[in-house]
Amino acid sequence: MTASVEARGLGVGYQGETVVADIGFTLEPGQLLALVGSNGSGKTTLLKTIAGLLPPTGGAIEVFGGKPLSRPAGVAYMGQFHPTSFMLPLRVHDVVSMARFARHGLFGRLSAADRRAVQEAMAVMGVEQLSHAPLNALSGGQRQRVFLAQAFARDADLILLDEPAANLDGAARGIYRRHLRALTETGRSVIIATHDIDEAAECDRTMLLAHRVVAYGVSAEILTQKAILSTFGMVGKYQEGGIVIVEREHAHDDCQDH
Fold this sequence. Notes:
By secondary structure, the chain is an alpha/beta fold. It has 9 helices and 11 strands. Helix 6 links the parallel strand 6 and strand 7 (189-194). Residues 247-258 have low confidence and may be disordered.
């Protein structure tokens, strides 16, 4: 079976300058991987490289056995930042429907299957009642649910999410996490970039990043006090099933990796 993602000696960075070097891992179909680190650690940079938005600075990266972007309809990517302030007054339904453009093009007509995928994704994230609402009129948490619905409506085999739980309340976080697990049970692979250790603990595998790979492996085995200390600089409180991280001040990675 072809791996969803395979990295060998991978270097990632911006404008030829490496942020994290010598990354190696294999993500199999049906696995959920967390990239964990503080701001500027390299997790967003790695996620963008897997998505094909940044070229590698070294080594090799394969997605479904080929180059990133070789199967654009097979990958869904949700970044941290959404340029909503200068967008046209798009409705929620319009934004979620954009997920289907990879299959039909910008001006392609949506099929019944496309419309069904959009409706199902909106229902999963609880935004179907906001279908005709202007995106810019929504709260931060509502917008985050809309963009998650857009990613899910892509119906992709590999889903890449950058800080997906940002601005979500407790109920919405529970819904989103349960849906991620449901997706992996159908053979889809998911990678999330997060600073939340509790979220990572629910994933199959975790990679801890701090401008280097601190640790990578089964989440239950590598989320140790020592590894977390190496990743974040200090641990405010540590106990199984409930970890609070206190970070030191740090410089941003070109203000692009948050």
